[in-house]
Amino acid sequence: MGKAEWGADPDFFGPRHAHREARLVRRLREVAPKPGRHLECAAGVGSLSLTLAREGRIVVAADLSPLSLQVLRRRAETSGLGDRVLPVVADVTRLPFADGTFESATTAETLEHIPGHEFAVSEFARVLAPGGWLAGTVPAGPKQWSDWDDWAGHLRRYTPQDMSAVLEGAGLEPQATVWGWPLLRLYDDFFLKRVNRRRLESAGTVEDDSALRRISGLGRRRGLVALVRMVFSFDRLFDGSPWGVGLLFTARKR
Fold first, then answer.
1. Model confidence over 161-192: pLDDT tens digits?
2. Exposed, middle or buried by CB within 10 Å (0-12, 13-18, 19+), for 119?
């Protein structure tokens, strides 16, 4: 196992990350278009929180990492969104909010890391107002498991049936769709897995490896990211295919 640590390079984002967040935002916009109080669970350094704040939502960004939330706070203030993004150190399995506080919530690539994911989903449901919506993404396809999942700290991958059962158990009315086939699956298999393997075997950070540093730089080129995202949008025609890389879900509180 390599020396690189999960989360050591949190800004190593690119078109896959941007595409997944865009799909999540679009889905949330469809089911909960009215801006209101929103909970972003495991917000990290805040790319999703900032996007939702720009749409007019008041975003409470919850995360266990004070360091990540410091980065998020600086990014929000620099973007002029300091009054719309409220960072809070919190455990998603024990949220420090009253019942029915939020009109909507998101959880992106989080539940697969949590041993008691059903407790987290129950907390999301508790803090949602009646009729409120939860939207999220998780990795799909248990048969796609690799050593990268082990290194990333994943405890599971999901089928639509798995995810729906957890959401229904919390009193939510779910919809779950597999996404990311065929183009994104090809991108993962022939490019991203090789990048991840290099990161996994790296003895340092992204900046210490010239190849990874170049790839990271490409991931920050907005025009290139937008172009690749446009190519990935073709995969929407095949939503529901069992070979997709991810699972997009929404759930309404009864």
1. 999 999 999 999 999 999 999 999 999 888 88
2. middle
Spatial contact of 115 and 163, defined as CB atoms under 8 Å apart:
no
Give the alpha-carbon dihedral of 76, 79, 80, 81, to 10 degrees: -40
240 backbone dihedrals φ, ψ, rounded to 5°: 100, -10
Contact between residue 140 and residue 180 where contact means Cβ atoms under 8 Å apart: yes
Model confidence at 31, pLDDT cuts 50, 70, 90, reads very high
pTM above 0.85, yes or no: yes
Give, as one character, the DSSP assignment of residue 105: E
Using 50, 70 and 90 to split pLDDT, how confident is the model at 252? very high
Looking at residue 91, what DSSP letter applies? B
- Dihedral of CA atoms 160, 163, 167, 168 in degrees, nearest 10, equals 60
Q: Look-up: residue for tokens 């248990």?
A: 142
Q: What is the mean pLDDT of residues 190-214?
A: 76
What does the alpha-carbon distance between residue 14 and residue 224 come to, in Å, rounded to a whole number?
9
Please tell me the distance from the alpha carbon of residue 176 to that of residue 110, in angstroms, as a whole number: 16
Which contacts (CB < 8 Å, 24+ apart) does range 21-24 have? 21/47, 21/48, 21/51, 21/108, 22/229, 23/137, 23/179, 23/248, 24/48, 24/106, 24/108, 24/135, 24/136, 24/137, 24/248
Cα gap 46→48, rounded to integer Å:
5
pLDDT digits (tens, 9 = 90+) for 46-89: 999 999 999 999 999 999 999 999 999 999 999 999 999 999 99
Element (H, E) at 128: strand 128-139
The distance from CA 66 to its chain's CA centroid, rounded to whole angstroms, is 18
